[in-house]
Amino acid sequence: MDILYLLIPLSLVLVFLVGAVFWWALRSGQFDDLEGPAYRVLMDDDRPGQEEGRRTL
């Protein structure tokens, strides 16, 4: 029973820290563009044959 006096405040502090980090992430724009990086991988800007000096086997 005595352990609850430690675990309850510790869990409240942990919830506050997670909430603060989530709020910071929202305010700094971390979740503004969730689709862009997924499509950026598919867009290939290099032209074939552009780097003739480097050949791979």
Automatic annotation (TrEMBL):
Protein name: Cbb3-type cytochrome oxidase assembly protein CcoS
InterPro entries, per database record: Cyt_oxidase_maturation_cbb3
Coiled coil: none
Keywords for the protein's UniProt record, in alphabetical order: Membrane, Transmembrane, Transmembrane helix
PANTHER family on file: FIXS PROTEIN
TM spans (from-to): 6-26
